[in-house]
Amino acid sequence: MCRFIQFFFPLETFLMCHTNDYAHLCSKTHIMKIASKYRAFILLALSLSLIVACKHDPEIVVAPDPDPTLCDTITVTYELTVKPILEANCFSCHNAGNPSGGIDLTDFSKLTSLAADGKLMGSIKHLNGYSPMPQGSNRLSDCDIAKIDKWIRINDFKPDDPDPEPVGCHPDTVYFQNEILPLLISSCGVIGCHDPGTAQDGIVLTDYASVISTADVRPGNPEGSDLYEVLIEDDPDKRMPPLPNAPLSQDKIAKIRKWIEQGALNNSCEEINCDTTQVSFATHIMPVVQLHCLGCHSGNNPGAGIMLTNYNEIASAAGNGSLFAAITWRNGFSPMPKNGNQLSSCNITQFKKWIENGTPDN
């Protein structure tokens, strides 16, 4: 306080402290008398100094703590969501070099098998009857468990519902079972290439688990997926399908790219409204043949010597009964599509109606 008074009243305190007549008055007691005399002014000065100080002090903004209850289970993929969780908690014990309990979780086909039979969720949830994982450690967080559970559900790894609700096809979604798998089987998963018996270069393209693991499909990342990269390869010696086969059309390549971008799901759908009244060759028959059959039944060496590249060839196979017998998997005929799922009941009904109508070129 004394220093404050001396600062604001330098002349008066100087005279008091440096004049012989008043030197004895230069004491804290007399300085405090000055403070009493000018109390109102001193209080005002102090208030102004505080206001100025507050005005120039930078405002401190404290960021809110992240909400620990938020858990993103909307955009769940294997590569970006599930794999990092397994790498942090499971791969050190369950890998190819050290498969604890004989379980290698780095093998995608084995992982999906454990997901399908419920063992994966039973272990990470620490349910009775299952070995709790991670072993000797705390259970995974509820968020991590929810993400893995969502991944299993959206990929149909769980056993089929005996009476499932049909899922209609959305025009902006690419469905693996309906579009991608038939395309791969017809163009690549044929005998001598990437069927289970041949498995050229260790790659099998006739089922979902094999496609994901052996063709190095990385959900959400087409450029990082071997399956897509070999389709757009500039070097004809590295491109797939290999010469002398023709490359896939740009729309088929785009479909595979879009499927990977959408998460490379093992999804399927059904045509809820199946048109079996106005069946035409151009709208209903030829697109199915192109997707499911053309890869084998075209080119210089068509399967069983049967060509199905145009109307006349398809109508001929339909006329002698072999086409319908093959797609309905009748005894005595080779079931078609080869190595693939049977055509949908809607597709089969449309072929039946088209044949009954006299196989018109409409």
Overview of this structure, please?
It contains 16 helices and no strands. The chain starts with a helix and ends in a 6-residue tail after the last helix. The longest helix has 18 residues, at 39-56. With 362 residues, the chain is mainly alpha-helical. α1 (2-8) packs across α2 (10-18), α9 packs across α12 (250-261) and α13 (281-292) crosses α16.
Kindly list the characteristics that best describe this protein.
single chain; 362 residues; mainly alpha; 16 helices; 44% helix; elongated; disordered N terminus
- Counting H and I runs of at least 4 residues, what is the number of helices? 16
Beta percentage is under 5%
Structural class: mainly alpha
Globally, the shape reads elongated
Q: Note the main sheet.
A: none
The low-confidence parts are 1-26, 51-69
- What's the β-strand tally? 0
C-alpha Rg (nearest Å):
38 Å
Report the average pLDDT across residues. Answer: 78
CA(first)-CA(last) distance: 105 Å
**DSSP helix fraction:** 40-55%
SSE arrangement, N to C: HHHHHHHHHHHHHHHH
